[in-house]
């Protein structure tokens, strides 16, 4: 059975417009090798709780623009299958792919934002 590879960006920086402070988002694990049918869980931890519930998750496949999957920490874009889900608030967020399929390999990114951006 072929292994599917999911690559994960280690961290993303963004600027909090209220305090002009830099917040670091750290994703774990860095990369995963999974098989079809597996469940994948990716965590994103922020250095500040000012992210609140303003977390998005993106999928990027080679040669393509990033595709928004989840926003507001847990709201799935309407065209995205329910195998993809998100949860969390404050500083700790989770993104899950249930029942991994052959089309799922790619880079997955978390992005924090706030209501003032």
TrEMBL record:
Residue ranges of domain Ig-like in the record: 21-117
InterPro entries: Ig-like_dom, Ig-like_dom_sf, Ig-like_fold, Ig_sub, Ig_V-set, IgV_Light_Chain
Keywords: Signal
Gene3D superfamilies xref list: Immunoglobulins
Signal peptide boundaries: 1-17
Taxonomic superkingdom: Eukaryota
Keyword presence, Signal: yes
UniProt keyword RNA-binding present: no
Name of the protein: Ig-like domain-containing protein
Species for this entry: Chelydra serpentina
